């Protein structure tokens, strides 16, 4: 079977697209690596490694620390390492963009842009791992709407004397949650908020967190992306006969 993979990121380096992500590898993900016999290379590991999460209930003004076994990683370096594991038999197009998909004559047709020009391929199977704004999902289920939130996070120079992870709950801001992560000399603060006024809610929460000794300063960079917030089992759609 011939396999083609499309990815928006470059093959190497820090230029181009990178996913907005705090970068913590959860225990379930760690178990997947154990099953596959994989070990993480040192260049994807971030500093420091912290073994608890500070959980903040803003409304109740309560803070508690809970033991958790997350691995602090550089998400972009992690993604590039994962791509390097793709077998040589797979044709990978880096820095590519899928433009259109459709079904015709029992085949999937894909138009994508890579290497400066558009290409057209056909395939028996189509697998979309293309995130909250998935083109594959929209094509398969055009009438299926899943609640969308905007994830916003900012990076700051680390000012806290003791680095920490945190998980923040404030129902006045969002019915999802917010987070912070200390990573490689930076303090990352973010959360998922309703699409309509997400930026305002994010700013309001930052102001509230001063009461919990969170220190921000001037943002080094800001990131945002769309995330899905399923509210029922029917929101989980996995595919049909040949697309997934």
Automatic annotation (TrEMBL):
<dbReference type="GO" id="GO:0071949">
    <property type="term" value="F:FAD binding"/>
</dbReference>
<feature type="domain" description="FAD-binding">
    <location>
        <begin position="110"/>
        <end position="147"/>
    </location>
</feature>
<comment type="similarity">
    <text>Belongs to the CbrA family.</text>
</comment>
<dbReference type="InterPro" id="IPR036188">
    <property type="entry name" value="FAD/NAD-bd_sf"/>
</dbReference>
<dbReference type="InterPro" id="IPR050407">
    <property type="entry name" value="Geranylgeranyl_reductase"/>
</dbReference>
<protein>
    <recommendedName>
        <fullName>Protein CbrA</fullName>
    </recommendedName>
</protein>
<dbReference type="Pfam" id="PF01494">
    <property type="entry name" value="FAD_binding_3"/>
</dbReference>
<dbReference type="InterPro" id="IPR002938">
    <property type="entry name" value="FAD-bd"/>
</dbReference>
């Amino acid at each position: 079977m011939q396999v083609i993979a499309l990815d928006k990121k470059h093959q190497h380096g820090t230029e181009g697209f990178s996913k907005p992500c705090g970068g913590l590898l959860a225990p379930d993900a760690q178990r997947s690596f154990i099953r596959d016999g994989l070990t993480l290379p040192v260049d994807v590991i971030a500093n420091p490694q912290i073994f608890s999460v500070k959980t903040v209930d803003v409304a109740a003004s309560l803070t508690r620390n809970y033991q958790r076994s997350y691995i602090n990683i550089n998400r972009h370096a992690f993604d590039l390492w994962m791509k390097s594991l793709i077998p040589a038999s797979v044709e990978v197009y880096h820095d590519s963009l899928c433009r259109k998909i459709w079904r015709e004559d029992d085949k999937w047709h894909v138009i994508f842009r890579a290497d400066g020009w558009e290409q057209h391929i056909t395939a028996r199977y189509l697998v979309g791992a293309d995130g909250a704004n998935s083109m594959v999902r929209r094509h398969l289920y055009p009438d299926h709407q899943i609640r969308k939130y905007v994830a916003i996070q900012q990076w700051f120079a680390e000012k806290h004397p003791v680095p920490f992870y945190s998980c923040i709950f404030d129902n006045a801001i969002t019915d999802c949650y917010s987070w912070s992560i200390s990573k490689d000399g930076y303090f990352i603060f973010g959360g998922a908020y309703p699409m309509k006024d997400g930026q305002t809610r994010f700013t309001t929460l930052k102001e509230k967190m001063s009461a919990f000794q969170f220190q921000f300063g001037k943002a080094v960079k800001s990131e945002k992306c769309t995330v899905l917030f399923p509210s029922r089992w029917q929101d989980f759609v996995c595919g049909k006969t040949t697309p997934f």
